[in-house]
Specification:
Layout (H helix, E strand, L loop, with lengths): L1 H17 L1 H15 L7 H13 L4 H18 L7 H14 L18 E6 L6 H14 L4 E4 L6 H14 L3 E2 L7 H15 L3 E5 L7 H15 L9 E7 L4 H13 L4 E5 L9 H9 L3 E5 L7 E3 L2 H8 L3
Helix pairs in contact: 2-3, 3-4, 4-5, 4-11, 5-12, 6-7, 8-9, 9-10, 10-11
Length: 317
């Protein structure tokens, strides 16, 4: 029990450290807006609206939060400024709870599927290949047999980077090299995983954000060839977004959710940005569960997302 408590504490400390820039920026702005006020009034809520939008929570999600706070303030008649953090934590938590996850929530639960196939999508530069490497590491630690597919065949660096991660994690990487058919790579990867009796297949895809029709056709083809081997593959389509890009992450999410059936999100680089509010906005607006967050560069700094721990850390004064 003591060992598990240690790891749990270590995860929370990493989360707190990873969210430090976002938290400091957010709480500092809120504190300044509260100077001279003894209660949460309409003028403060107007300022809070600007603060949340500025933290890349997004306009639609911010308006929902403000509306909920206004109702709480009206119902409670008098809400002191000291209670604001708790109110924010409660209302954001409720908002996040409305997004129900139907995907595995840890590295041992694969929903009885074998192999469990994950297709990873996202633009270049968001940390997609690194995220795959870290996922492979976590699955290996959970005792799972993993196979990787180097389906981002338009960048030599992506193929080589995935091979490095494969070597580092001691997991096989199926690759046809650069400028080859990504669907063919996906087919061979899934077929190899079945032959090896693997538990998990993770397939990288091209990070180009070209026109939606081209993107849709490419991803549809990859899915179609995998389904020749495993009828219901992929079981998870993971969209990787760079949290530090703020509103650009929303735009990328719009393109990829229009092109394919994304059912899980990973938000990377939270440790290097004050724009961590994007996690709340993306989860709310797209109704897709956040599965992973990246809170550092270390191999263990890709965390399974716990919405309550996230909100607690963000609003902990």
């Amino acid at each position: 029990m003591g060992i598990f408590s240690f790891f749990s504490k270590d995860k929370k400390e990493r989360l707190d450290q990873g969210l430090e820039k976002t938290k400091t920026s957010l709480l500092d702005k809120i504190s300044k807006a509260l100077v001279g006020k003894s209660s949460v009034d309409d003028s403060f809520l107007d300022e809070l609206e600007e603060i949340l939008v500025g933290s890349d929570v997004g306009i639609e999600t911010t308006l929902k939060i403000i509306d909920r706070l206004q109702k709480r303030v009206a119902a409670d008649k008098y809400v002191g400024t000291s209670e604001l953090n708790n109110l924010l934590r409660e209302e954001v938590s409720k908002l996040m709870d409305e997004n129900k996850s139907q995907i595995p929530t840890d590295f041992t639960d694969l929903k009885g599927v074998k192999p469990y196939v994950v297709m990873v999508v996202g633009v270049n530069g968001v940390g997609k290949t690194t995220t795959i490497g870290k996922m492979a590491n976590q699955y290996k630690k959970a005792g799972k047999k993993v196979v990787l597919g180097a389906g981002d065949t338009f960048r030599a660096a992506a193929v080589e980077q995935l091979k490095i991660w494969g070597s580092r994690n001691d997991v096989p990487v199926i690759s046809h090299g650069m400028n080859t058919d990504p669907a063919s790579v996906a087919f061979d990867t899934v077929q190899k995983a079945v032959e090896m009796d693997a538990d998990v297949v993770i397939i990288d895809t091209a990070g180009r954000l070209h026109n939606k029709i081209g993107l849709m056709n490419e991803l549809t083809k990859i899915k179609r060839v995998m389904q020749k081997v495993i009828v219901d593959a992929p079981h998870e389509i993971l969209l990787v977004l760079d949290a530090s890009t703020g509103q650009n992450a929303f735009e990328q999410a719009k393109h990829f959710t229009a092109a394919t059936e994304v059912n899980a999100l990973a938000l990377t680089k939270l440790d290097g940005t004050a724009k961590g509010g994007v996690v709340i906005g993306v989860a709310d607006q797209f109704k897709i569960p956040v599965k992973y967050i990246g809170v550092g560069e270390g191999i263990d700094d890709l965390q399974l997302f716990d919405k309550h721990e996230f909100v607690d850390s963000l609003f902990k004064s």
